[in-house]
Amino acid sequence: MTQMHHGARAAAAFDTAAAWSLALIWILPLAYAIWAAVHPSAYAAHFVPDAPLTAENFVRAWNAAPFARYFLNTFVLVSMILAAQLVLCTLAAYAFARFEFAGRDLAFILVLLQLMIMPDVLIVENYRTMTGLSLVDTIPAIGLPYMASAFGIFLLRQTFKTVPRELDEAARVEGAGPLQVLLKVYVPLAKPVYIAYGLVSVSYHWNNFLWPLIITNSVSTRPLTVGLQIFASSDQGVDWSVVTAATLMTSAPLLVAFLLFQRQFVQSFMRAGIR
Amino acid sequence: MHDAESEGVTAAPLPARAAPPRLAIHIYGWLLLLPAAVLLVAFTHYPAVETFIDSFYSTPKGRRAAALVGLDNYQAMLADPVFWRALANNAVYAASVIPLTIALALAMALLINGKIAGRAFLRLSYFTPTVLPMIAVANIWLFFYSPGYGLLDQILGLFGAATHNWLGSRDSALACLIAVAVWKDAGFFMIFYLAALQQISPQLAEAAALEGAGRWYFFRRVTAPLLMPTTLFVLVNAVINSFRLVDHIVVMTQGGPDNATALLLFYIYEVGFKFWDTAYAATLTVVLLIVLAVFALGQFVILDRRIHYQ
Q1: SS3 sequence, chain B?
Q2: Same domain, A139 and A23
Q3: What is the pLDDT of residues B198-238, one digit of tens each?
Q4: Do B45 and A175 touch (CB under 8 A)?
């Protein structure tokens, strides 16, 4: 018995050691970036406890590129995408969940196809389409391919299906039309799912890079990710302290939101993934 | 609404209210779906089909319109060493990133799920890379890898190792990118495992402990089978990510040195938007679409049989 106890203790100690080593490895690159960003360049790779702190790197980064504009562009972009997604996905999900229209199953399969063939890989043809629509180098062009999200439709359909039919019918008996039923019964009940989807969507599009890189070519449309990349690969980008400061600056809003609302973030990602 | 109420008062309840006419259902269904369907067709289905068609045409140049060239693009592709390089790189990349990420995600979840000191901090450090943009992550790691100066060389220097150009050398560049991808995604997949582990009844572990089952035995016989649906979900996402995400390559290596880190989508981006050979880019995209389709089908067919549904 005591031997088993010893074994369990050794295992627990091993677990703790493994978990903490892993965590240190995981936090190291980020801690390193923060170190470089808040110290003068001379100390970027020189780790002494008495290195002086500075905000200079952030000031220099902010002044070296139009980051304010990039922030605004990203903000407009993610808001536009999210607003469109919420409307489009809600309507489509409602159709799939509660209307047995002709061709529904086939249509649903065609929607799910997008989970596998994402707009991220169809860059060549979508660029051609945007050229045809004269939308190249506009913020709507960055967002359009993502607005009808199969993931959002799927998620909301699953949620709407769990709404008891009785609630739906009760509202109908009171004379509500299909859209009123949707707004008064389904949407309020799906609120946690909307929050989860919103968080996932905002962080996805805040971070998205390749398509925005391709479709934009001016300061007035570029989102933060593309702006950061152009800044980091330019001549002044050689100064690592300034680049890491810029990098942290562009990730800061999401990072701070995450640290403040950790539980909601983790639960949202989980909820959005598992259903 | 007022009409309906007054109707209800004056006339007998209409059967049409309880069960709307069939035609209305079809019309409503399609009208609700229409806005999403238009965008989906325009930016997913149409471009996917158009990709196939374009792969049989030449790239239009100046006044010369695209001409039907049959399988010429495919023949050029088969003779293109960079294509084979990118395909092989992507295979190595996927075959490394996917198992490493899943194994680490599972290990993290198992560790955190137990009673352990500093759980909140541990979970935070595993999950934080997930919230950062890949672009930011890549810039941070670029610094981390820089020869001599970067943290990696500094740490290895303590053990007397010589400086190494990690991203500039053909032998290590792809491995460096693999490490970045694993670091970024493991924490993300961890939370799905964590959620699944919390669904498993603790009584199972107690019963197994009474029977004298070891930790490894319990994991293999109880935990792992119960986690199978989660593994499938994580696997599908990991596969897609390993073909979809090339942001770090744009930042860190541009596919180099000597195409050692060119992945398929990166090569498509290069051909399509640097060399502007759209027909050839379409041909390469066809390959990528086929790879994704095969993986999606294969995963469901094979894993479906092995999954334990609760």
Answers
A1: CHHHHHHHHHCCCCHHHHCCCHHHHHHHHHHHHHHHHHHHHHHHHHHHHHHHHHCCECCCECCECCCECCCHHHHHHHCCHHHHHHHHHHHHHHHHHHHHHHHHHHHHHHHHHCCCCCHHHHHHHHHHHHHCCHHHHHHHHHHHHCCCCCHHHHHHHHCCCCCCCCCCCCCCHHHHHHHHHHHHHHHHHHHHHHHHHHHCCHHHHHHHHHCCCCHHHHHHHHHHHHCHHHHHHHHHHHHHHHHHCCHHHHHHCCCCCCCCCCCHHHHHHHHHHCCCCHHHHHHHHHHHHHHHHHHHHHHHHHHHHHCCCC
A2: no
A3: 878 788 877 887 777 777 888 888 888 888 888 888 888 88
A4: no
Chain-chain contact of B47 with A120 (C-beta, under 8 angstroms): no
Query: A206 lies in a domain?
Result: yes
Any domain includes A251: no
pLDDT band at B9 (very low <50, low <70, confident <90, very high): very low
Smallest CA–CA distance from A104 into chain B, residue = B29
A253 in a domain, yes or no?
A: no
Yes or no: is domain B72-306 CATH 1.10.3720.10?
yes
Co-location of A118 and A152 in the same domain: yes
pTM score above 0.95: no
Of B44, B51, B116, the CB nearest to A15: B116
Shared domain for A108 and A206, answered yes or no, is yes
**CATH 1.10.3720.10 region(s) of chain B?**
72-306
